[in-house]
Amino acid sequence: MNCIRCTAELDRHEGVNTGDKPKDGDFTVCGYCSELMVFDDGELIAPTEADLDELPAGILLNLQKAQEIAGEFREKCNKSR
Ligand SMILES: [Zn+2]
């Protein structure tokens, strides 16, 4: 499974809160480029406007936080090179 934006291999999927394997409709954030994606039938796809609209506000905030953290982590990694 690869990121739809940066094509990084994303092979370790664990829920932030649950540790469960993701199921269809679950959201994920790429740890390399912070792209927001949705699991769909064993693949990652871009979320539609409708997908985002259906998200509870708290979840959307958590995803945006995850995107920020991924970005900060990436910056730190780039600086240490
Ligand atoms: Zn990516």
Order of strands, main sheet, comes to 1-2-3
Helix share, percent = 25-40%
Roughly what is the average pLDDT, rounded to an integer? Answer: 87
Uncertain runs with pLDDT below 50, 5 residues or more? none
Cα-to-Cα separation, first versus last residue: 27 Å
Task: Tell me what portion of residues adopts beta-strand conformation.
Answer: 5-15%
Provide structural commentary.
There is one protein chain. The chain is α+β, with helices and mostly antiparallel strands and 81 residues long. The chain has one domain (1-81). The chain is built from two helices and three strands, in the order βββαα. Strands 1-2-3 form a three-stranded antiparallel β-sheet. The longest helix has 23 residues, at 57-79. The chain is globular. The model has no long low-confidence stretch (mean pLDDT 87). The structure holds zinc ion. Zinc ion binds next to loops.
Structure, briefly:
The chain has one domain (1-81). Helices cover 36% and strands 14% of the residues.
Furnish the topology, listing elements before pairings.
Blueprint: E1 27-29, E2 36-40, E3 43-45, H1 49-54, H2 57-79
Antiparallel strand pairs: 1-2, 2-3
Zinc ion is lined by residues 3, 5-6, 8, 30, 32-33, 35.
